[in-house]
Amino acid sequence: MADSFIYANGRISGEETTLLDQRMWQMLMSSGNEEEAMRLLGDTWYGSFMQYHSMEDCFIKAMESTEDELIELSEDERLVRGILHRRDVRNARYIWKKILSGGSSEDKIEIERPGLIETETLWKAVNSNEARDELPPLFLLALEELLDNDRAGTAEVDRKMDRLAAAVENDELIEINPGFRTFVMTNIEQKNFLTVGRCSIDGVSRQEACEMLFPGGYHTEDEIAEAYQRRMLPDLLTETPGFDGIGAAFEEALETGFFSGFEKECDRRLLELLEKGASPVFGPSPLAAFVISREMEINHLRLLLAAKSAGVSEDRLKKRLPRG
Q1: 315: exposed, middle or buried (C-beta count within 10 Å: 0-12, 13-18, 19+)?
Q2: Average confidence (pLDDT) over 258-265
Q3: Are 146 and 127 in contact (CB under 8 A)?
Q4: Are the beta carbons of 238 and 245 closer than 8 angstroms?
Q5: Residue 154: band (very low, low, confident or very high) from pLDDT cuts 50, 70, 90
């Protein structure tokens, strides 16, 4: 099995050089405004995608190109399903949110190329049992839960789609190797503590907070909800493997009500785990790690450009992004 990935892993090793290095991130962080940051990006791998009308289109095309590389190279069907279903989750979010807020298939919305589910199926599934039967079980469950809720607004759709995204990763990616299992579980755990941390600031009830949590982390939803009610979230967080350096940032966030420092430490930890998740050298692991690294890079670039557009200082930006 490993031998079949030798060519693929060689290709990915070459593609990894297109990820932005530390020097470029330092330059982007120090750029004076959004226009200067975009000029810098134009000299990187992203420059070939900047012919499109907006940076968001550029990022979508860049992510599609990265995923296409994986589809071409990977012989692991489970990995391909996991990555492409993540794209389907994003399209389902755009489409179902539009329909449930009163829109139709004739309305213009930004969607991505289909992963494994045709976008027409996602449009029709809301009102057609026949189309609904074409959805994978996880997608069908999410849609049925939304349709059962007469008051499903955009916030509820986002909540269900966040849960679906976590379920897809938990179902498809954790079996790649122990390193990737750790990555997926850590990602879910971080999201859960970020959610209950913000709920704590907003005074949300235990039941409502528990309903926002995802299964698949190191602690169950009930365990986190119990710690939430007893105001012992930092103590529970310190029990999570590998979260030693994150606990202090979480306590500070609870005290100040600002979670940017905690999010930075969470992202830093995920980037470290991606490097470990790429082992062994041969097999599907480096391919999966590369795709998710690109996705995180694009998300951080979105944050950086938004911050530059809003005039956020370099010091404040560095408090949020684990880059540069």
Answers
A1: exposed
A2: 95
A3: no
A4: no
A5: confident
Residue 35: other Cβ atoms inside 10 A: 11
Specify if 135 maps to a domain.
yes
- 12 has a pLDDT exceeding 80: no
Cα within 13 Å of Cα(175), Cβ side: 10
Most confidently predicted of 19-33, 69-83, 151-165? 19-33
Residue 309 lies in a domain: no
> What are the DSSP calls for 56-125, one per residue?
HHHHHHHHHHHHHHHHHH---HHHHHHHHHHHHHHHHHHHHHHHHTT--TTS----PPPSSS-HHHHHHH
Would you say 110 and 56 are in contact if contact means Cβ atoms under 8 Å apart? yes
Residue 170 lies in a domain: yes
**Per the structure, how many domains does the chain have?**
1
> Running DSSP on this structure, what letter comes out for residue 312?
-
The rounded distance, in Å, linking the Cα atoms of 266 and 176 is 22
Q: How many CB atoms lie within 10 A of CB 281?
A: 12
Residue 163: inside a domain: yes
Q: What value does the mean pLDDT of the chain take? A: 87
Q: Report d(CA 267, CA 290) in Å as an integer.
A: 15
Q: φ and ψ at 48, to 5 degrees?
A: -70, -15
**Which residues constitute the domain of residue 126?**
77-175
pTM of the model: 0.83
